[in-house]
Amino acid sequence: MDWKHATSLFIFVFLIINITLGYIYYEKVQRANIVEDTSSEKLDFKKEGIKLTKLPSAENVKMNIVSGKSAGFTQSSSDLEKKSEELSTVTKVEIKPAIKLTAIQEDDIIKGIKNYLLTEIDKGKEYTLSGIDRANKKLYFDQMYGEYPILNNDKAQIKFSYNEKNEVTSFEQTYLKDIQEGLGKNNEKKKVIPAIEALEVLYYQTKLECGDEVMSVRLGYYSIVREVRGQVLKPTWQVAVRKVDSSIETYYVDAVNPEQPIL
User: Measured between alpha carbons, how far is 51 from 45 in angstroms, rounded to an integer?
Assistant: First the structure.
């Protein structure tokens, strides 16, 4: 072996490795500086051409990861003999007589359905209006845990159907039961970041751009683990955005660990 050439080769490889490591370190420092700079500067959404809705307050709010299980529904006498895990997790009911709504608007929907929701639907008081789908004639109510909704979850909602006469004719219901907060030191309640900070996260990750309009911002729980019968949900800011092309995008920002990936 030519040790002179081998030594030169080892020195060359060593230099390349050091240069590479130096570059990686430089990039890491630069990214850290960018994060520090953006967090220290106050972002002016108006100057950026982004319209905002009124933002909800989360001052002094602390939340935790929670878990829950899908409830089973008995829909006939034969279901009484079944174990809970054998029951259907959704119940479908026709509304007779149909409920006439004066208009498909938030206040009119709540006024028209409230009594039926409280008196005719099991645990109906635990749901809140969350969405209107005019194209498919559906009204969505999210299940609540404490003061906050379980966001966009087909295992924790009531879906009403209405016809061309604005008559509510049926509903489907799902429900998460045995909801409990995480236990242990790593699952202590944490302070929720302000809504404006969630929007800044979206902006710096280019999810919010000039010409966009933030239509609604809600704090709640969003599913991160979804099994057949059980779920794990984390505190989350839900942000609905109308883009420049008029399409609607919904983003989910971790409300206690904003450095986590946007969903």
Answer: 7
Amino acid letter for position 61: V
CB contact at 8 A, 208 and 202 = yes
The model carries a pTM of 0.80
Closest CA to 158 of 176, 137, 172, 179: 172
Residues 215 and 241 in one domain: yes
Q: In the prediction, which pLDDT does 98 show?
A: 98
Q: Is the pLDDT of residue 221 over 50?
A: yes
Which among 180, 195, 227 is the end of a domain? 180
| Mean pLDDT of all residues in 110-137 | 97
- Intra-chain end-to-end CA distance of the chain, in Å: 57
Rounded Cα distance between 263 and 261, Å, is 6
Helix, strand, coil percentages in the chain from 3-state DSSP, rounded to 5 = 30, 35, 35
Residue 206 phi, psi (nearest 5): 60, 25
> Is residue 169 located within the same domain as residue 128?
yes
Whole-number mean pLDDT of the chain?
85
Choosing from 127, 147, 180, the residue where a domain stops is: 180
**Residue range 139-162, pLDDT digits in tens:** 999 999 999 999 999 999 999 999
